[in-house]
Design brief:
It contains eleven helices and eleven strands. By secondary structure, the chain is of the alpha/beta class. Helix 1 packs antiparallel against helix 2. Bound molecules: iron/sulfur cluster (SF4) (2 copies).
Length: 372
Amino acid sequence: MAREAVSLFALGVWFNETSAMIAENPAHRPMPFKRRWRALTRKLRELGSIAWALADTGHPYMAHIIPMRRCNLSCTYCNEFDDVSDPVPIAEMERRIDELGRMGTSVITISGGEPLLHPELDRVIARIRRTGAIAGMITNGYLLMPDRIERLNRAGLDHMQISIDNVNPDAVSKKSLKVLDAKLKMLAEHADFHVNINSVVGGGIANPTDALRVSERALALGFSSTIGIIHDGSGQLKPLGDAERAVWDKVRRLTRRSYSRFNHFQEAIANGQPNHWRCRAGARYLYICEFGLVHYCSQQRGYPGIPIAQYGRADVQREFLTEKGCAPNCTISCVHQVSYIDHWRAPQTSQVTPGGAHGAGAGADAGLVQLR
Ligand code: SF4
Ligand code: SF4
């Protein structure tokens, strides 16, 4: 089983990187040496991190950290932004990143809100790299410009993900191909880091075929592409309808080199079926909010709700073995993928965890939000 876990996860990463390298120049222009070198060294670092994750279960593999809750957009399905909050001061961000480094976190991804609104984002990225971690970022892309992309190159960004929800902006989302295409061209020209474009189907998305156009455009520009399923603004997840299902199948065939091909979790979600898996949130995956608290994930904020400075190996080991009652209908694919490293070992035997607004309670399970 261990060998299966290694090969599937490593292949996922390898295909993800390789697809980007192969497709990077659809016009068969030679890829700049610098970009090729960075892709190669990134891949080696990723493979090393997976080997270490297999050898030691006492450290987080991935953390999402929030430097900025504010966003310049207001997608109606999103519960992860506000339009008022200030950036987390850089000294505090650096302290939190160092704490993640102390715990041995392999991949640190900046999320939000909109991270590009943070005035010192380059320093945040550079600090992540100083810990030895792989640096990622999730952005809506609106604020990208050539000089900003060059600054991200210099800071050492490894991965960027942009989610594009539709072709034309509508009342649900302005993350639209029509608006963002110019930004994608800038990235194709200037970015030395890996770029993944995520398209979506599901709740609130008016034209399912938009996902296909988004993926085709992403691949044509030399990026990798994935497709996700979103729930609607009330948190409800429904099986895909016929039209959505047809698009879902087409995009997955189109993006067959991407790691999403290995994600059988998403297949069950598309069919409206529960998944049987061991969520390792709080252990292999951490979500660090703007207040510096560790949470299971973006949808289960409050559990365990412990400040990152106090979070340690004992917490990781407890959460590694804690069953999450929200797992069957979970749609959070990055936690699925991270948890897959350990899917073959360590059955979860505990249901007790700190919980409540700031980790003051006990027995979180009853309070976890259930997606249906
Ligand atoms: S751009 Fe992202 S963070 Fe901002 S509202 Fe939309 S989904 Fe939420
Ligand atoms: S929603 Fe529940 S199962 Fe999904 S990642 Fe969060 S804690 Fe884990």
